[in-house]
Amino acid sequence: MKFFKILFFLCMSFNWLNSQVSDDAITLLVSKDSVSFYVFNKAGVTDYTILESKQLSKKYVKYSKPFPEELKQTKLESLSSLYSNDGSAYFLYPGGGILFKYLNGVFERIDESFAYRNQFSGHFFEYKKELYLLGGYGYWQSNSLLTRFNFELKNWELVPTYGKTPKLGINSGSFVLDGDILTVFDFTQRVDDLDVKNNSLYSLNLDKMIWTKGGLLNKMLFAENEKSFDLVVGFKKSLLQKNLTDSDLRIITPKDNLIKFFKAEGLHNINARAIIVGDNVVYPVLSANRQYETLTVKNLNENIVFLSEESLSNDFNLIVNYFIYVGVFCVLLIALTFFKFRKEKFVFFLSENSLSGLNKTMLINKDENFVLGLLVNSKRREIDNSYVLSYFKNSTISLDASVKRKNKVIEELNRKGLEKFELVLIIKKSKKSDSRKVKYQLNSVLEI
Amino acid sequence: MSELYLYLAFFIITLAVSFYLNGYINKLFIGNKLTDPVNERSSHKFPATRSGGLSIFFAICVSCTFGISTGQLTIPLYALLSVFFLTLTGFADDLIVVRYREKIFLQLFAALLMINAGYTIDSFHGIFYIYELPYWAEIIVSLFVFVVVVNALNLVDGLDGMASFISLKFFLITGGIVLVSKPEWFLFFPIIISALIGFLWFNFHRSKKVFLGDTGSLFLGSIMAFILFYILDSESNLVTDSLISKPLLAVLLLLYPLVDNLRAFIIRAYNNKSPFVAHRVHLHHRLADKGYQHWQASVLTFSLSTFILVLNFLLYSLIGFIGCVALTSVLLSVLYYSFFK
User: Fold this and answer.
1) Is residue B84 part of a domain?
2) pTM of this prediction?
């Protein structure tokens, strides 16, 4: 019994030893510049520099002030982090609000706000020495809020944005900041209590705070049910995405509307905590006995093989191709119409007592012959009513009777034309300014 | 590539069906003495029937049935109810003349059906600095746009080929947008375009002349209104969003009917005459009076309005919304004095 008691206390003490934070424990990696990075844990920070030989030189600093109480029960990996050009590293509590800063051996809380919990999975970034948090999820809703940390008030303030804001929210998105433009894509939004992927490409001009909507994402690569990537890290104004279950890797450059696909066999043991430092990828690897972690540095260019490339938003190519087809179609349509009507002239022969054409002959009388002859020889094949009427005027009959005679001749011509050739031969037109002034025109499809 | 063959197959099938139905229904109409009379005001000089709309409708129904049953096409069924309702209204108008007040009432009812199906214009997209609309305004704007679009096509259907060419332009352009943004609807576009071409053949035919009639113009107009609702919906992610403003695109798609009807409406109202009573103050009547043949006038308006649309697409990113509106106004004035004055 005594033996078991000793064994129990030995186990307990080993457990206690294991739970202590060792100085070398690798928890949170933060990239500094193209050759150095930090590794933070709750006891201190190690400043690593990648030497030309790919060896790492390191300098460990124990925090000079007590580690913030708020993070005692929080995993450091859950914080959003960024390195600022002023030499500080900032850490944002999940969901937004509480902000920490590391500088010169001091890891401290710098805000006077609280845990907002409404911007989980939001994008934490720095622009012109200001800290921003965009979008996220909280209280069963996604949002597209843009908040900025006010260093004087030590609190977060809402930044109004304009234009085509993705109003239904930006949750778990991909973000690339290049100059003033923050490109946002591959995110979900809350619609009717469901997370639905937004398949558009958005960009926010941080100088003017105006959203613009780009094209639609390449449907082959951003399918609605496609799962999110395990590893998403910024890489030289691009975004590197990788799943840990396979060797495929893709680098997205929104500015060039490009996705490059690579095979990354050399990065088989990479994990979600990896960071990019210059051209290198740095990630912790668990030792064989699973007791501790070591850092691995690999040159990205040497460990990936280019496979292919695709457009991030391929709709432009698709629509250009479509409109090429449409252009050809329109030209053909117009050409065919021209061709059809170029042939659509019906040649007729007018003799003293007949009108012949379309392999048919129609008998006409002297009056009808005169009217047709008059129209054929007139300018624009159009004559005033008075000219026609003058032919029918006769001193022996009244004017009314002459008009009736004229109308009867023209009506009879049209009736016979419709019956024989299915054509109206003469068209009656009234003048717009005075409807009493009538003109007669030969049907334009007739060539007499 | 296989999709291209599929679209081509449906195009050819619908073309054949449309061609057959136009001939067959035309014969039926003539057999039942349902011909359009040749009178002084009519622009045709041959006996003709108003069977084109019905033929297009049936041809599209046949092909869509194939498309839906093979899983290649999805159609929003509730919106279809509104389209069917208007088509029947048009058919009734072709057989027994429906007064314009009754017709407007029936169109409003069809618009309500469309709105209840969930298709509305819910945003001005920044025009007059207005973005999202309150619900009551959304309903009023949607009703207004629906009635305007449906009547716009109906009223310009005055020359052979005119309504068909306007519809062809509309469906060719919006087809590209739908191809990318809503591919499950896309097959409908090769179908409707080929149905229109089948009709166009008869519309231009000398002895077997067929008109679209109110059946056709209301059927096509309601489909156009539905597509415009989709385009103007703030939740629609369109490929053209980065190229041109949605409201500008909507106007440019129906530029000729909108401009022509607005002009005719103003002239008729100025002369204290009802704009809804048949008249000859349309721009295409001017072309016809100037000696243009029907097909020439139709092709001319099609080409000019397409040219303005393409120009706006190309220049929008450079000159913006206001610049495009100014450019379009200048172009319309120049073209009016060059061709229509």
Assistant:
1) yes
2) 0.64
